[in-house]
Amino acid sequence: MDDIKEYLKAERSKEWRTELRKSKKAKERTSLERALMPEADPNKRNKNIEEVNKGLLTEVALVEASRCLDCPNPTCITGCPVGINIPKFIKKIETEDFLGAAKVLKETNTLPAVCGRVCPQEKQCEANCFYTVSLKKTPVAIGHLERFAADFERNSGKMSVPEVMESDGIKVAVIGSGPAGLACAGDLAKFGHEVTVFEALHEIGGVLKYGIPEFRLPNEIVDVEIDNLKKMGITFKTNFIIGKTVSIDDLREQGFQAFFVGSGAGLPNFMNIPGENYNNIFSSNEYLTRVNLMNAAKSDYDTPVFSGNNVAVIGGGNTAMDSVRTAKRLGAERAMIIYRRSREEMPARVEEVKHAIEEGIEFMNLHNPVEYFANKDGRVNKMRVQKMELGEPDASGRRRPIPIEGSEFDIDVDTVIVSVGVSPNPLIPSALPDLKVTSWHTIEVNPENMQSSIPDIFAGGDIVRGGATVILAMGDGRKAAEGMHKYVTEKVKAN
Amino acid sequence: MNKIIEKEYFSKNVIKLVIEAPEIAHSRKPGHFVIIRVDNKGERIPLTIADADEAKGTITLVIQRVGVTSSKLTDLKAGDTILDVAGPMGQSTHLEKVGTVLCAGGGVGVAPLMPIVKGLKEAGNRVITILAARSKDLIILEDQIKEYSDELIVMTDDGSYGKKGLVTHGMEEVIQREKVNMSVVIGPAIMMKFASLTTKKYNIPTVASLNTIMVDGTGMCGACRVTVGGKTKFVCIDGPEFDAHQVDFDQMLQRLGAYKDQEMKAYEEYLKMHA
Q1: Domain count of chain B?
Q2: Do A171-266+424-494 and A268-421 come out as alike in CATH topology?
Q3: In chain B, where does DSSP find H-type helix?
Q4: ipTM
Q5: For residue range A364-399, what is the model confidence (pLDDT) as tens digits?
Q6: Chain A interface, Cβ < 8 Å to B
Q7: CB proximity list for A483: less than 8 A, separation 6 or greater
Q8: CATH code for A26-156?
Q9: Together in a domain, B52 and B110
Q10: Do B73 and B143 belong to one domain?
């Protein structure tokens, strides 16, 4: 930790940074207003899949970058799960060295264009920004700037491929190609290991592809980042289910020395209420996978999807927002969120909720479904909801929802999307009987290096956390890569 | 990319494909299935593995033409490729010696039944197999099933081959005649429902292999959910085989029809384009 502090200090003392700080008075910097993200027109965008956030214009990004005070103690970095050198990349932008800024980002972040779009910065770096903490002002738009630098680099056609050490021929495997796996693979490749990523689906990217919709994270952006990983020498194998297609033992025999399990929280939760298995009631995973991964909404693709007129999405997380906004885009007249707590407890990002409201999404907070009804074909046509009130805070620190007896009423619906969380994917744990798992079926790891109870198996992301964010998964992947690097180096030395 | 090594017509609409898939051929056990996607606009569908040849690195699938995807598949020729084949998925069949096992296969359900019949025979059971279909041209794999069955009974609804009558009649006859310790039924959901009701009357433990709608096949989407013993189960990871007496077949039938209208419309368009 001290090493990092020293490193940051030395970086900050470089002449160009010192000069830049002097070039403008702090008061001048703090008097500037935070840049606003340009957005597509809500009434147009809710009928198509174009990206909602348009990205900052260069001149706006320059001004925003100049707001950053380049603090001696950059607390913003402590809020970043992958430890990006935030002031350095922002100051690179201020000097108009945009490619340099992108390079700084990629030192610690495999997927900057993704994180600039989907990270909850308001809870991480920006929450720890000097503006937020001490000045009580709106923070520097770190996320918008990250996206700006990453997009600039991509559009410039001059993508820098991170430097990798000379190959040491040590074979390592990454299971799952979501954010945890990609971050882990990127760092393992930097260490000079021979990395193979195994993916169960036919596309690389995990939740970035099947889960997060095009209007929030275009697939093209994910593909460019994956291409970059390929250029670093990483091999990708799709349609490959570890524990099924081949076992971990098979891979050990093939010479793989260590494994990273980033298989995600693939198992959708249902509420187990009457009628939940009627047709047109989906998990958000199913609904989003059909639309995002299988292109079901496009007429020339074979996968069908039911796009209803009265769509209810149960839940208040980002996945619920993604689902309800997708339903609106597929033509729903009424697309609503049914959430058992209030706006305040909603786990979704502030931005997602704001965008959803602008797009005409209805919010029925403090309501919970208790039963579904169907027509004679078994298609849902009505749901019974119960009103809720908030009691004392529960284990999560949020106020517990309490049902109000006798408050039930019915709503007409023709599609219901259940988005009440996910559980860890059981495929890997069930294939490894010796692997220690928690009572929540997540894999138990040493938080220092992400090593599991089986020494050559490491894990991270939702299979360990049970349902978190892209960036936390990436942080785990990086930490595990370091742990694996140490593990395989020692193992090879010992032999 | 998985190459088709061999194609055989069982009948006009039922074909067998032998596909290159060395890892799956190595790992698969009776009861397992694969998810396939024919081309980059295709959907993902589950198909139970009918056979495999580890030495040659191939698996065998049997497909009946019923809609767009099955038509795309059955229109492929030897030498063509299938874009994605992933597996083997699901839990394999629990095979042990129990005594006499009555196996019943309906239509193309005989294909997934084949490795189970073989496995049960090899485990030392007396195996009686009933092959049932609407008519003679839909009876498949008769010789192969015969090889591993102590007795084979063929039944057709219209009497065009074997005995005339429904699969349940054949099952009743066997059960009346001798002690049956276990039953395995695989075929259309409606056939499994009635076959299961038949064995339930006699308290014969029965296994059914369910072929529901799936997208990913790894537990991720929940499209395949069924009610078994009052609890929601995912066919892809908990199954595909379940205690048939606990399965809510009526719900399963309803769920199989979830996209009926879209499927029919898409198939009509496909037929028009390929006429």
Answers
A1: 2
A2: yes
A3: 22-27, 68-75, 110-122, 142-147, 167-177, 189-201, 235-238, 249-256, 260-273
A4: 0.94
A5: 999 999 999 999 989 999 999 999 999 988 887 888
A6: 200-202, 210, 238-241, 244-247, 266-268, 270, 272, 276-280, 282-283, 285-286, 289-290, 294-295, 300-304, 306, 377-378, 425-427
A7: A446, A448, A449, A450, A451, A458
A8: 1.10.1060.10
A9: no
A10: no
